[in-house]
Amino acid sequence: MRPLLVLLPFIWLCAIAPAQDVVIRDAKVYTSPEAPSRTHVTVLIRGGKIAALGSNVRTPAGIIALQCNGCVVFAGFWNSHVHFTGAQWDGAASRPAEQLTRDMQAMLTHSGFSTVVDIASDPSDTVVLRRRIQNGEVAGPNIYTSGFALYPPHGIPFYLDDLPEKVRAKLQQPNTPAAAVEAVRENQEHGSDVVKLFTGAYLTPDNITHMPLEIAKAAVQTGHDHQQLVFAHPSDLKGVQIAIEGGVDVLAHAPDTITGMDADLVNEMVSKHMAMIPTLKLFSGSSHIGKIRDIVAQFHHAGGRLLFGTDTGYLIDYDVSEEYHQLQMAGLTFRDVLSMLTVNPAKEFHLESHVGQLRVGYDGDLTVLSGDPKQEELQDFAHVLYTVRAGRVIFDGEPKH
User: Which tens digit of pLDDT belongs to each residue from 67-80?
Assistant: First the structure.
């Protein structure tokens, strides 16, 4: 059974810095993926919320005004698959705030992400990082985190072989349902918001091991009991089947070993209300990339909910334009991709009453682009001018003169 509610990140219960007031005048806006664009609009954020949206908005004196010059404004973008696993996040409690802000801009906020979902990292760093963002020390996005992922017994993927031994020793490989429950609860005690499972893990490029179904079910149930969404890395047909039978909510990737993947399985995923994060850039060098795109397209056309995500953090090339290019090649439209970035994750996290659209009273999270992707290529979604979280400008790409 899917959770009815997702808790706000644990650390949000702590002190939060006062929100800023921001205005953008004479902008083109898309209030939602379904709505037509509107021009010559003023967007006013006060106290971290959208206070006014229209063509005749009075702006109080002293509010920060962002230069527009033909800009296009959207609700804040989500990246639903990232990792805070690079060396720049080690010891986050003691690293200089200015450096962490620069690292956030390099990895995430320069691409317009006002909210991210971290699905595998060391919570001793990620939860501290989240706290420093929320109290205003560091300019960064809202962060949801899984803490450590759960792997199959003896199932750490080969591409993690270069992790330091002290890190590998922390990775969870539960071999019983009880051990899976304990591992999920340990992450929860450290402040996790979601659960991440490897239902299929590559021991070598040609050998996939799988999480036993009873272990996956125990982990999923423990997450759902705590009102958490559960993400799974499936890898192949069997990994997808375990995710479906186990009650997983979101596939963290499209399956990249495609043997046996057919329309019936895709329809079963959709019937179980499972969401998918394609991460097509990750597979763009694969000889099967066309077929992986086809799986994503079939899932979308069958009514499945797609979320935008890039595996940034594992991928250390932070340019997201290739992900947009691959989605366009899969046949997705401007409004499809905008939904992936905004309303779809808001719905998946049960936050649609105040997140994911530009509406008065909604959270003051904005992504401002220098042009309209609808008019050119979807890669133009990567041309970010500003990223705003709760009225705070966390990325400013306006050329300075």
Answer: 998 899 999 999 99
